[in-house]
Specification:
The structure holds two protein chains of two kinds.
Chain A lengths: L6 E10 L2 E11 L4 E5 L6 H8 L7 E6 L13 E4 L4 H6 L4 H7 L17 H9 L15 H13 L5 E5 L7 H18 L2 E5 L3 H7 L2 E6 L1 E7 L5 H8 L16
Parallel strand pairs in A: 3-7, 3-8, 5-6, 6-7
Antiparallel strand pairs in A: 1-2, 1-4, 8-9
Helix pairs in contact in A: 3-5, 4-5
Chain B lengths: L7 H26 L5 H19 L3 H21 L5 H22 L4 H9 L7 H20 L1 H9 L1 H5 L5 H23 L4 H15 L3 H26 L3 H26 L2 H4 L1
The chains are: A alpha/beta, B mainly alpha.
Chain lengths: ~250, ~280
Amino acid sequence: MVNGACVRFSNCTFSYDGTPAVEDVTFAVDRGDFVAILGPNGSGKSTLLRLALGLLRPTSGDVLLFGRAPDRFRDWSRVGYVPQFVEEIRARFPATAEEIVSQGAYKGFDPGYVLRRGAGPAVLEAMKTAGVDHLRRRKISELSIGQQQRVLIARSLVRGPELLVLDEPVAGVDAGGQEHFFELIRRLNRERQITILMVSHDIGAVLRDATAVACINRRVVFHGPSHSITARELSTLYGIPVDVLIHDALHEHR
Amino acid sequence: MFDIFQYEFMVRAIIGGAVVGALAPALGLFLFLRRLSLIADTLSHVAFMGVAVGFATRVFPPFVALASTCTAAASIEYLRSRRLLPGDAALAVFLYTALAIAVVMISVASGFNRDLFGYLFGSVLTITATDLWLTLGLTVVTVSFVLLFFAELSQASLDPDLARTSGVHVDLVNLALAVLAGATITLSMRVVGVLLVGTLIVVPVIAALRVSAGLRQTLAVAIGVGVLSAVVGLIVAYYADIAPGGSICLTAVVVMLLAFATGWIRDRMAPAAVRK
C-alpha cells in the first residue's frame, strides 16, 4: 500500500539550533501496523512523533501524514494523540475525567459547548473501551498515572481515529497498570484495526505486541518486522547488553 | 441601614467593582492554568506606564493604558510562543522596562502625583459614568469570549500540543487571551490599583479550585468569589472607612482561606473509601 501509509518520513532531518535531533530518517507506518519506536533517551524518538503530528517542521526532507504535510493537515479526527505524562500541568487542572474525554469530541468552534454538561454517546463509549467509565465524575488530579493515561486514550478514541500516536504512554505507570495498558493498545490494533505509532521503553512488550519496530538513535538504526530484530541490534542501540530484558519475547538468542 | 446606596458614587463603585470582580477571575482561571498568573503583575505595571504617559502627554490615561497593555500582552505572547525569550524572562523585561518608563515620565511631568496615587492603589470611588461604560463594554466582550471559546480555552490550557492535534488554533486562542488579559488588567487597575491587580485575577481562582470539581464549576465559583469579594469589600470599606482596593483584596483572601478550610473539613468528613 504505497499511498495507504498513515505516516511517511522521507530523508527527514530536524535540528535544534544547528544540532540535528533526528537525521535522514526514512520509514513508513502503513495502515493497520503497530509500529514501536525504540531508542535511548535523547535519541529523537519524541521529536519524530512531533514531526509526524506537525508540531515541528522538518529542517530538511519530508513528512507526510495521510499523504499531506502535517502542518497543512486539517482532518484531525483521523488522528488520536496521547502525549507524555506531564505532572505539573495535570496536577492543577480542575477538570473531571469526563470533561477531559469530552475534549476529544472537538469538531471546531462550538459556542454552546460551555452549557452542555452531560457527555455524548461517543464519549461514554470511548470511556468504556478504555475502561475508565467508572471514573467519570472524578477529577483527573485524583487519579493514578495509569488511570490518567487511560483517560487520555479514551479522549483520543472519541472521534474514531485511524491512527493513534502515543509518546511513552506508560512512563511512571506501575507494572500491573502497564500490562493493562498494553493489552488495551493491542486490542485497539487487532480488533479495531487502528494503526499504532508508539514510543516505548518496554522492549519486552514492544517485541510481543508490535508488528514493526523502528530503532532510532538520531538515525534509523533498524527498521523492520519486530520478530526480525536481534539482541545484538538492541545492544548496539542502547549501548548495553539487553538480551536479558527480552528473554521471553525474542526467539533468537546469542 | 442601606444609606450606602444613597450616594451615586457608591452605586457606581459597586457596579464597577462587581463587574471587574466577575471579569478578572473569568480570564484569570485560564491564565492560572497556563502558569501565566504573573502576567497580571507585568501588565499592571505596563498599564501604570500607560497612565503616566497619558498624564504627561495629556491623552486620556485609560486609553493609553489600554493600548499599552494590549500591545505588551501580544508582544509577550509572541516572544514566548516563538521561544525568543523564556516566558518568565519576557515578563520580567516588560515589567521593569515599563516601570522605568513610568518613573521617567513622572519626573518629566510632575504635578499629578495625587492622581497617580489613585491608579497605584485604586480609585473605585471616583469611577465616572464613562469609565463604567468602558468597563461594561469590555466585560461583555471578554466574558463572551471565555464562554464562546470555552472548548478551545480549556483544550489549550490542558496541553497545547494535544489541542493542536485536535484541530484547535492554539496560537490564535493564546493571542486573544493575552490581549483580553491586557484589557482586563487595565480595568481592574481602576478598581484595586496597579499593585493589587493580580489579587482579583488569581485569588478567586485558587479559592474555586479548592472547592469545585470540574472546569465549568471552577469557572462559575471563581466568578462568584470575585463578585462577592468586590461587593463585600466595598461595603466594608465604606463603613470602616478604609482603602477600598485593599479592602476588596483582603476580602478575597479571607474567602480563599474559608474555601481552604471548607475543603479541608470536607476531606476529613469524607469516608476513607472516597478519599481512596
